[in-house]
User: What shape does this take?
Amino acid sequence: EIVVARFDDKVIRITMFNLAQSVALDYYHGVTENLLTEVKGFANQLELTGKLKISRKNMMRFLGRALNTQNDIAENIYIFDAPELVWEDEYLDKLHKGLIKHFDLRVRFNEVEYTLRIIEDNLTVFREIIHQRESSVLEYIIIILILVEVFDLIITKILNL
Assistant: This one.
């Protein structure tokens, strides 16, 4: 419930703007919690088995989903930008600041942002593990090629004798 000294379209617009920000934060909080749950699953798997059992393609898809979530939040959440209406009217500015405080928009935004940073840090580690795994495969391929070359050299020396 909100009690206002005046009731006009600007008051309604500011109120709806802040309400929309609150609803959007609820939505993105749920999305980031789902992403964090998936990341925790990967981390638990890594802890239990010592291996990350996800393909490079699936990891890149997950990374893309996390990045798109971050981009969507940047596009749709305007916690730190006051609407132009409040610049000209002190009453609207007070209303806007009061609604931000009432809905805890800054705190909730910081929570979502912090969750995304945790996800990003985990994904950086997972990417490094996948790159290390790919590097190991390339090293084994090189070793096998060198062994084939050595065996070829030995066989051609033996046949030439």
